[in-house]
Structures are given as C-alpha cells and as structure tokens.
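We store amino acids, tokens; thus:
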Amino acid sequence: MAKSANNELDAFLTGKSPRAMELYMHFIQEYKKLGALEIIPAKTMLGVFNGKRRVAYITRFGKNFLHVVFMFDQAYPDNLCFTKVAQVPGTNQFNHHFRMLDEADVNKEVKKFMKMAVKAELA
C-alpha cells in the first residue's frame, strides 16, 4: 500500500530541529498568502507546488536555517536575498539560493521573488 503524501511529508519532517520547523512553518505560511500550494516530499528535499509546477524547493533543513532554491529563466543578480545564483548547465534555468535564518528574512524583496516564482513559466 502506498503512503499518502501527508504521511510522506510527516516522515520527511520527523527529526528536524524545532528552530528549522519554525522557519519552515513561517515560510510556507507566507507562500500560502500567494495562493493554494502543496508541499511535495522527494528523497532529499521538499517541492513547493502551485498546481502547475514546483515554484521552489526546500533543499536543506539546518539546525537553525532553511535553504530554499527558486528557479527562474533568467538570473537576478542585483538583490540582497540570494546567496548564490547559478545557471543549470545546458538550460535556461537559473537557480537562486536563499538561506533563511530568521522569520524576518522573508522580507519585501523575498516576497517579490516568491510571487515571481509563482507566476513564472519556465520553458
């Protein structure tokens, strides 16, 4: 019998630090303000799915941080929120890496990129 998505998500989140869970809950709560979304567990990360495509990936739960990757079809190097912007070789996809250490890190600039990710259509 296949596990349900909720059971898989619960299993994925088991053992994460309390602080990382607080950051995760805040990040998801802020993303849900932009519309309905689903969290899809994978082996090593969580996908944030808006009904059409994955708009972000939560790739790492540290003891006191979350690492999130947003995908865009161009680089946005002029920002204060991304620690790294890198093109996926052979594609027009640019991964933008965001490290969340505090709830306040989901600021106006980050929310702008969250909204852009929801609206983006990658080829």
Notes: The beta strands are 38-41, 46-49, 54-61, 66-72, 82-87, 94-100. The chain has one domain: 5-119. The radius of gyration is 14 Å.
